[in-house]
Prior knowledge:
The structure holds two protein chains of two kinds. Helices cover 22% and strands 26% of the residues of chain A. Chain A has helices at 3-12, 36-46, and strands spanning 15-21, 24-30, 58-60, 83-87, 91-93. In chain A, 27% of the residues are buried. The longest helix of chain B is centred in the middle third of the chain and has 14 residues, at 59-72. In chain B, strands 4-2-7-8-9-10 form a six-stranded mixed sheet. A three-stranded parallel sheet of chain B has the order 3-1-11. A two-stranded antiparallel sheet of chain B has the order 5-6. In chain B, a hairpin with a 5-residue loop joins strand 9 (123-127) and strand 10. The interface between A and B is large, with 31 and 47 residues. Strand 5 of chain A pairs antiparallel with strand 6 of chain B, so a sheet runs across the interface.
Amino acid sequence: MAVTEKVKEEKGKKLSVSIAYNGLNDSFDYNEKQATGALRARALNHYDIRGQAREENFLFGPDNQTELADDRPIGEQVTPGSQLYLRPRAAGGGSK
Amino acid sequence: MTVLAAGVLETAFEHFRRCGGARDECVVYLTGPVDRGSLVDGVIHPAHTAGPAGYDVPSSTLADLWAELAQEGRSVRVQVHTHPGTAYHSARDDALALVHTPGFLSLVIPDFATGPVGLENAFLAERDEDGSWVAVEPACHLRVER
């Protein structure tokens, strides 16, 4: 295979990451120039997270500690095949 | 109807009494296999901070929990915590819930769980289709196996 053909093939390859939410862990295709917020929105839709909670669940990187910025391209923040996590920053409750 | 396997409620109350010590609130997460949506057969007592009127689960604990659930193919189906007196769903309970999908249940146990093990005087809220919490009757949504 000519080098140019191989490059074309790799460019056309679908990029994907896994996003886990509450024990479910599904694969999502992405375009590396797409804003990360768009991927987060797709994950929120996929996992049926509605209402105000859409503003309270965030994408975390493979270390599950680093929060991914919505306004930056996905390709700058993750590598293909990464395991990501959709979760709140904290949880809690109480009588007051 | 969510089915709590035998021993689940007893284990939850043990955590509440040992950790909360009748002076602080406490929380556990009830889990089940992702492919058996109605079954709860596990209890997770997450690392948290608490006082007489509230509890907090930090990001690092949620990170470990989310990774563990994904690895084991299990989901949290019910969050359960104690109140010092009457059981109800406070604004804080509404705002800081762990899971935000329709059908998720949040159970509140009164009196720091110092009463009999069971659902007497407990308060159950369900996440609805609009993302709000609605009060539901525990006996209609939870079946406790003995």
